[in-house]
């Protein structure tokens, strides 16, 4: 069985492990055009694709997906599932951050994505003994690049592949303390 890490609590959001019951909602988010076009693979996913992905995910010890839940936002209910974020390719020293999306449109530009990233850098990273977290973001996704910069990530290169051009960014966790 996959080990669980977290949950992690912030001021506005809580990160908890993805569960099978979350799959219909995460698939809906992932298939939204504004979300899927930010991923490496931009094709819509089917229910079967998502189920098979989850079955494989449950077997991986180096892959952790978190559901982002709302917490203490004025005029908002607490505990509403609003998005997801992941740490994967986890080794003894580094991990990749990705699969991040705020799926609930009403929570866009409320600081939830930034706080989710900061929680992973400040809590999950050190808890896993990581010294670095890196990511790849589509080069034209200026809003995401700016968000990651605010969270302390710095430009670390360009990746060109069949799926497009990506900016590689990284954060030194020990320097963030």
Q: Layout of helices and strands, plus pairs?
A:
Blueprint: E1 8-9, E2 13-17, H1 23-31, H2 33-36, H3 47-59, E3 63-70, E4 81-88, E5 94-102, H4 112-127, E6 132-138, H5 142-150, E7 154-161, E8 164-172, H6 173-176
Parallel strand pairs: 5-6
Antiparallel strand pairs: 1-2, 2-3, 3-4, 4-5, 6-8, 7-8
Q: Kindly, what is the distance between the CA atoms of the first and last residues, rounded to a whole number of angstroms?
A: 32 Å
Helix content: 25-40%
The number of strands is 8
Side by side, the strands of the main sheet go: 1-2-3-4-5-6-8-7
Can you tell me the residue ranges where pLDDT is under 50 for at least 5 consecutive residues?
Answer: none
Cα shape: globular
Number of helices: 6
Order of helices and strands: EEHHHEEEHEHEEH
Strand content: 25-35%
CATH H level: which superfamily?
Gcn5-related N-acetyltransferase (GNAT)
Largest sheet: 8 strands, mixed
Descriptors for this entry?
177 residues; alpha+beta; Aminopeptidase; 8 strands; globular
Task: Describe the structure in brief.
The protein is of the alpha+beta class and 177 residues long. 31% of the residues lie in helices and 32% in strands. The protein has helices at residues 23-31, 33-36, 47-59, 112-127, 142-150, 173-176, and strands at 8-9, 13-17, 63-70, 81-88, 94-102, 132-138, 154-161, 164-172.
